What we know:
The protein is mainly α. It is built from 4 helices and no strands. The protein has helices spanning 2-11, 22-35, 40-46, 53-67.
Amino acid sequence: MESLAEYIVLERVVDPEPWLSPATFARIRAAAETAGLDRLEPIHDALSREIDFGSIRIAVACLRNSTD
């Protein structure tokens, strides 16, 4: 998943739908609004550890691209 996140960053992808469902992305985005985008662990904790780090990494990469 790290290579995929690197691809997302390099290609400036903002839509994670090929890899994440809209519902999963919405949950991660909501958690990231509270926890911030600097670190994955606080987002993982805010999601009660229900969503894996790979999915969070993809979503955060897309979110960072959309705010740049």
